Amino acid sequence: MKLLLLVTAAALTTSIYSLSFTDADGNTVNMSSYQNKKILLVNIATNSPRVAQLAGLQQLHQQYGDSVAIIAFPSNSFGNETRSNAQIKQFCLQNYGVTFKIAAQGSVSGMAMQPIYGWLANAAENGVMNVAILRDFEKVLIDKNGQIIGVFAPALSPTSQQVVDAITDTNN
Asked: What is the DSSP string of 71-90?
């Protein structure tokens, strides 16, 4: 007698809330601390031509911080980040008044990508899509249930109506 085991796709996925990252100060941050909030993940680089988007991200943090957590992931994956973690944090604070969470620098593409970006890149893990990060300042919005609900191009301002509407939409 054979036993047939049916496994749903949802059972194979990994929850983003089971992941963690290291922040710019060296502390471990569990994604579970962001449950019941939307999360905007943004890969940043302080030497990127789009670095001024940090001001828009800070504006979002100030306006919508009760409902969305913004997490910046500094990366030299595209050759635009030469600063250390402490220097990145200082640059973001001094030049853009950043008070949202900044992760430690790490890869957002390729074989050595950080676990959260590995989760984004693998539909089998996140249950939605393969999100390939191709440039600095790509933005990915996660809903209150830990599902990817938006991927926004690097050129799109974080304060654009499209991003704000996705953040303020109470249906997800």
From this structure: EEEE--TTS---S-HHHHHH
Residue 162, helix vs strand vs coil: helix
How many Å apart are CA 78 and CA 109, to the nearest integer? 9
Based on its alpha-carbon atoms, the radius of gyration of the chain, rounded to whole angstroms, reads 16
Q: Is residue 52 a contact partner of residue 155, using CB atoms and an 8 Å limit?
A: no
| pTM for the whole structure | 0.92
pLDDT tens for 69-122 read 999 999 999 999 999 999 999 999 999 999 999 999 999 999 899 999 999 999
Map tokens 């919508």 to a residue. 64
Query: Which residues partner with 101 through β-bridges?
Result: 71
What's the CA gap between 122 and 119, in Å, rounded?
5
Q: What domains does the chain contain, in order, with CATH numbers?
A: 15-168 (3.40.30.10)
